Amino acid sequence: MSLLRMFCVFTFAGLISVLNADAQTSDTIRLKEVEIHSDRNNLFDQGSHITNFDSSTISLAPNQTIAELLQQNSAMFIKSYGAGGVAVISARGTEARHNNVLWHGFNINSASLGLSDLSIIPSFITDNIQLIHGGSSPVNGNAALGSTLILNNHKPEFKKAFKSMLNFETGSFGNYQGNASVDFSNDHVTSATKVFYHTSENDFTYINTTHRLKPEVKQTHGAVSGYGFLQDFCFKTGSNQYISAGIWYQFTNREIPPLMTVPESHAEQRDSVLRTYLNYRILINKHSFKVSAGWFQEYQFYVDSKSARDLDYLVINYNGEFEWRYFYNDKIIINSGVSSSLAQASFKEYDQQRQRNTTSLFSGISFRPFSGWDFHASVRSEFTNVQNPPVAPAIGFNGNLLRNKLYLVANSGISYSIPSMNDLYWIPGGNAHLKTETAFSHEAGISLFPGDSVLPQFRITGFISNVDNWIRWQPTTGGIHSPDNLQQVQIKGVEAQVSWTKSAAKLMLTLNANYSWNISAIVASENPHSAAIIDKQIPYIPEHRIAGSIYLHWHQFMLAYQQNFTGITYTTADNNSHLNDYATANVTLSKNINIQKTGIRLYFRVTNLFDAQYQVMAYRPMPGRWISTGVTLKLNHH
Fold first, then answer.
1. CATH number of the domain that 502 lies in?
2. What total of structural domains would you count in the chain?
3. For residue range 38-77, what is the model confidence (pLDDT) as tens digits?
4. Domain residues for 331?
5. d(CA 546, CA 562)
């Protein structure tokens, strides 16, 4: 059945049900609040490996970026271009462009680059971050061959409440950070306000291993500063009607430090981002309708006084979406919708203003045939003014094998990634003849939830993806880098998670461990010059990543130890050059003090405890051991 026919069938069924609503009043099901307010990713995640970072995890380091949060609490590889530099996610052996970041349902990846810089997004802007490993269900959009990162807030609670938070932190290398939030709600409205600021000189010392004498030098021209705010509102206009709106503004100014092979740098980059959204949701009997709109503006200014380069880049995105959800009964939920977006990019390097129009149709069904077994099937198709990618179906399930303690999960589907604007239009080097990357992905795993403190919770997942037309930028005969489609890349690997908690009296011990093994290699190519890179690991995708943590709570004290390991990372396609493996450790000690309705948290943290000297990207040094200390004040009033 074609996507259009499936979409029409689901929609027609829903309209018939609306017309018959009066006749069905007596057996209208009792809808769960989570199903009414949930984003569709929560309804169509059966068979997916999902990692949740809740407010308790985020609050342990209130000034960390999302890049730092993922680096310390998951086995995802974060490509960091040095302290204060760009940081992007590489999940399951994919490139940064294969990982989506969603905010209120909208993809906030740059239309020009096809990725998001996680080094400038504070984790504290949201109270729930969800990471869906692998290509998520097509109802959530595509291009997510590696992962989908969802910035969520918990469902609004319409009751009288007020709470506020203020945090300040200072540390090594001229590091000063602060943030504050105010949340207010009553029976009809909720409001959440967040502001943040940070500045750092990043003048750390490191060993320059590119020099024959390996001297200890101080990084120069690496300062970074930024500020921003978010404001979210949700209005309950009726018993089953809600209007939500929000704005997110952020400005970052950073000096770009020299590579280890270069004596100095005079380059600077300023990023300004403004994002807004508005949505309306209504529940009519068994039907939920949602209309959303978003407007995003990204502005970047790059200047290099030494080379007299002065460049600015402007991208504007217009987004709209209509979504219909039908709660047939307590076993079946149907979801269909249409979305449209327009991205306009004004770049000097494009020679003219470029734009991308995208229209998407999506449909999905979530089905529970019997208790403990959940299935989903979904499909999506996109139409653009550039090229039309293939229809993307997906199926998945969760199966309860043993009394809510042992689960079997699996999913399979097609994902795709359209070339970014830079891939197509950048002068010099852009390739207007690039094809869409298409991935055929499968995964399966088991999860163990013993339900007691003797055995740990455990999950292991195996996955494999075959990606056709993988895009790679490479040097040409003229010395200019240009993208091209590789014939086929195969990605395979294993992810494992272990968690164990033990409590006794006022003492609680929690252990967490995450491991990922990723093989990502070119397995076929029509290019006769590609023989040297066949079956070689793709550059900057390490095979092994480990992240572990130990949390010890006693009375109002908390001691946390975090350990990370990243295996050898190849820097060339033929795997003849590589960066050494490295391990870093962090330790945090905190104390909570409660005075009536005010909570005070004092903390002290040592980052890179053992002073490891390492690089994530070649010739871009990372800081050694450094310390920070801070205080958080919380006021709650109900």
1. 2.40.170.20
2. 1
3. 666 677 777 888 898 888 888 888 889 999 999 999 999 9
4. 3-180+192-199+209-637
5. 11
